[in-house]
Each structure stands twice: as C-alpha cells, then as structure tokens.
Amino acid sequence: MPQYQTAGAAGVDLHAAISAPITIAPGARALISTGLRMAIPKGFEGQVRPRSGLAAKHGVTVLNSPGTIDSDYRGEVKVLLINFGQEPVTFSPHDRIAQIVFAPVTIAKLEMGSSLDETERGSGGYGSTGRG
After folding, report:
1. Which parts of 1-132 fold into alpha helices (H)?
2. For labeling, which of 68, 70, 127, 131 is most exposed (least CB within 10 Å)?
C-alpha cells in the first residue's frame, strides 16, 4: 500500500510490481507496473511525478511528467520511466519508482470565439517576458 514517507510529504511513493529486475539502458524507457488500481474521487486527479533522488543520482525521470490518472480510470497504474543518465539503471521488485500527488481539478467551460481580449504580453511566446 502506498504511504506518505513523512508528515509533510505531498506525494506517496509508487513501487515496482515486477517479478524480476528491469534494467533501463541510457536513452531507453520502460513502462513499469505498480500493481495498483484506484478510484480517485470525481474532481481530483492523480499526478504521477518523478522521485527527485532517482533523477539526481541516476538521471531517471517520468517521461510524461506529470502523468495524469483521471478520476474515471480504473485500470492498473503504470509508470513510464526514461533513463537520461550515462549508465544502465536496474529496478528490482518493490523498488520505489515514482510518486503520486492527488490534486483538485478545475473543469473549464470551453467556448468558440472570433477574437481574444488584449493583454500586455499579447502573443509573445517563449522568452518574450525577458526572464531566463
């Protein structure tokens, strides 16, 4: 059962539900089972996020981060890991591979329109605000 590791933790760790070790080569990815299915309440989502230790030590992260688990999904939660590091990384059964944060979701009302209101930024894209 996933658990919060500390009283202030935002996410619970997800563990590898595998029967044998899986090695991810540099530049490769793997879809790893957690063995979990969950019923997330309507109005919430589960955000699958990387574990900072795996990213810092090995260059392993969640490829589609954050991966969204919708409230109406009832299948097994799997984690898509990628190894951006220089060395192969092996995961054993029950290793912590990611974390999941449960967050509220706002449902937007989408409308078609022929124009948008003006803003100071306008259509300025990447780098247009002069930061970074």
Report:
1. 52-58
2. 131
Taking the model in full, what pTM does it have? 0.86
Return the closest-CA partner of residue 89 out of 18, 14, 34, 21: 21
Residue 28, Cα to own-chain centre: how many angstroms? 17
**Would you state the pLDDT for residue 131?**
61
Tokens of 71: 């409230």
- Reference 50, options 106, 107, 1, 89; nearest CA is 89
Beta bridge partners of 79: 32
Encoded amino acid at 82, one letter? I
* CATH code of the domain covering residue 21: 2.70.40.10
pLDDT of residue 55: 96
For residues 36 and 103, give the distance between their C-alpha atoms in angstroms, rounded to a whole number: 18
Flag whether 1 is in a domain: no
Structural contact between residues 16 and 94, judged by C-beta atoms closer than 8 angstroms = yes
Does residue 53 sit within a domain?
yes
What is the per-residue pLDDT across 83-132, written as a single tens digit (0 to 9) for each?
A: 999 999 999 999 999 999 999 999 999 999 999 899 988 888 877 777 65
